[in-house]
C-alpha cells in the first residue's frame, strides 16, 4: 500500500518532468496544510487584512514553479520546504502592506494579494483534499477553535507550536530558529502546549 510520503515522492518526480496532472494533485493534497501554516502564522489581526487563500495560492505556485530546485528526501523535508516558502510569501505581503502605509492595528480591511504576477505555473488547480496530517485536527470546527486558542497565546508560544506541530521541526531545528538549545526549545514547547491545552479546553 502506497504511503502519503511515497505518493508525494512519486508526484514530485512526475511534476519535475512537466506532468501538469501531478502538479494539480500536489496542490490538492497540500493546499489545506499550507493554509493552516499561513493562518497560524498570521495571527488574528493580520488575517483581517490579508486573504489567507491568496497567500496559500501564491505559496503553492512558487513551490510548484521551483520544484526543479528541490531534492526530495522525505515528506517532512517537503513540508518544511513549503513552510519556508509560505513564510517568505507572507513576509512579502507584509512588505506590501507597509509600502502602502497601512497600519496593521487600524480596523481597515485590505484586499488580498493574489498570485504573483508573471507566475509560470499554468493549469486548472484541482479541488483541495480535505485530509490533513494527524498533527492537525480533522474537523473544521475544531480547527477554528484551535486557531482561536492559538491567537490567545504569547507570540513565542504560538511560534514554537507552529514550528513543531505544523512545520514538523525537531527540537534542534527549532532551537536554531529561536536561538536556543534543543533542550530549551523542548521545554518551551512543553509550556506552550500546556498553555494551548488550557485555553482550548476553557473555550
Explain what the structure shows.
This protein is mainly α. The protein has helices spanning 4-16, 20-47, 52-65, 75-99, 140-151, 155-166, 171-178, 182-202. The protein contains eight helices and no strands. 29% of the residues are buried. Helix 6 packs across helix 8 (182-202) and helix 7 crosses helix 8. The protein is globular and about 50 Å long. It has two domains: 1-132, RNA polymerase sigma factor, region 2, helix turn helix motif (Rna Polymerase Sigma Factor, Chain: A); 134-203, Arc Repressor Mutant, subunit A, CATH 1.10.10.10.
Could you give a short description of this structure?
The protein has eight helices and no strands. The chain has helices at about 5-15, 20-45, 50-65, 75-100, 140-150, 155-165, 170-180, 180-200.
What is the CATH topology descriptor of the largest domain? Rna Polymerase Sigma Factor, Chain: A
Q: So what's the overall shape?
A: globular
CATH architectural label of the largest domain? Orthogonal Bundle
Structural class by secondary-structure content: mainly alpha
Rg computed from alpha carbons, rounded to a whole number of angstroms:
17 Å
Q: How helix-rich are the residues, as a percent range?
A: 55-70%
Name a few traits of the molecule:
203 residues; mainly alpha; Rna Polymerase Sigma Factor, Chain: A; Arc Repressor Mutant, subunit A; 2 domains; 8 helices
Amino acid at each position: 500500500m502506497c504511503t502519503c510520503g511515497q505518493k508525494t515522492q512519486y508526484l514530485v518526480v512526475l511534476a519535475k518532468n512537466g506532468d501538469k496532472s501531478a502538479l494539480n494533485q500536489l496542490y490538492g493534497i497540500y493546499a489545506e496544510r499550507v493554509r493552516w501554516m499561513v493562518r497560524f502564522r498570521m495571527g488574528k489581526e493580520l488575517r483581517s487584512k490579508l486573504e489567507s487563500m491568496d497567500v496559500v495560492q501564491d505559496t503553492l505556485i512558487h513551490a510548484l514553479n521551483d520544484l526543479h530546485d528541490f531534492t526530495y528526501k522525505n515528506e517532512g523535508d517537503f513540508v518544511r520546504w513549503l513552510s519556508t516558502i509560505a513564510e517568505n510569501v507572507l513576509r512579502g505581503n507584509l512588505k506590501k502592506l507597509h509600502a502602502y502605509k497601512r497600519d496593521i492595528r487600524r480596523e481597515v480591511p485590505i484586499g488580498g494579494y493574489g498570485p504573483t504576477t508573471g507566475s509560470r505555473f499554468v493549469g486548472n488547480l484541482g479541488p483541495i483534499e480535505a485530509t490533513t496530517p494527524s498533527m492537525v485536527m480533522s474537523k473544521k470546527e475544531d480547527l477554528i477553535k484551535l486557531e482561536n486558542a492559538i491567537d490567545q497565546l504569547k507570540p513565542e508560544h504560538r511560534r514554537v507550536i507552529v514550528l513543531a506541530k505544523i512545520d514538523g521541526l525537531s527540537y534542534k531545528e527549532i532551537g536554531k530558529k529561536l536561538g536556543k538549545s534543543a533542550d530549551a526549545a523542548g521545554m518551551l514547547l512543553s509550556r506552550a502546549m500546556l498553555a494551548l491545552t488550557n485555553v482550548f479546553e476553557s473555550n
